């Protein structure tokens, strides 16, 4: 197991016939931007698993399910129809046929998604969706989340775990939230810490780095540098 902190020289890119890439890590480490860019560069599909849990949470809130009651969440987990589009240039997500890409990014959903995603019945439902998409994606897929390399796709061809310092993560997250919610840097960092604690301590598929994952610290890297680093790791795996 090794940690990667620097980028490498770019080379000509040719995607393998099929490849499944798992990219895990907490919020603010650059998972989404990196995953979409890597998928686009290698001509692969892309799946934001966090959006699926957000979609489930949004549906629960919109349909009056008590998201503080695990039993109520478990009972409703099989009801919403969640469909994820996997084009990295324009990923989509619908719930019961309606576009949910905007509603799932509200502060209310963000504050409740950990509680909903901790319910085993929810994780089982979403994990099934994720595995089906990964198994049928051609010519392969980049899947990002928190338990992809450990639980959802333990046999993924390449596993990456992104990290960054708390300060950098909070700054990035505050930038994402600008214009959506008035959240200052300190409160954003505190919110991230609470999310980390909840995700890492849940009994069902906690946030964790797979033993065979390569850790990439993105704190001092640009997005392009992180993308080149991950693409190179994928190519190394293909030629090993």
Named CATH architecture: 3-Layer(aba) Sandwich
Give the assembly state of these chains: single chain
Order of helices and strands: EEHEHHEEEHHEHEHHEH
SSE-based structural type: alpha/beta
* Count of individual beta strands: 9
- Any low-confidence stretches, pLDDT <50, length ≥5? 4-16
CATH top level assignment: Alpha Beta
Return the CATH topology: Rossmann fold
Beta-strand content estimate: 15-25%
Q: Share of helix among residues?
A: 40-55%
* CATH H level, superfamily name: P-loop containing nucleotide triphosphate hydrolases
The major sheet is characterized as: 6 strands, parallel
Key terms for this structure?
240 residues; alpha/beta; Rossmann fold; six-stranded parallel beta sheet; three-stranded antiparallel beta sheet; 9 helices
What can be said about this structure in brief?
Helix content is about 45%, strand content about 15%. The protein is an alpha/beta fold and about 240 residues long. It has a single domain (about 5-240), classed as 3-Layer(aba) Sandwich (Rossmann fold), CATH 3.40.50.300.
Plain-language structure description:
47% of the residues lie in helices and 16% in strands. By secondary structure, the protein is of the alpha/beta class. The chain has a single domain, classed as P-loop containing nucleotide triphosphate hydrolases (Rossmann fold, 3-Layer(aba) Sandwich), CATH 3.40.50. Helix 1 (31-42) crosses helix 9 (223-239) and helix 7 (166-177) crosses helix 8. The radius of gyration is 17 Å and the shape is globular.
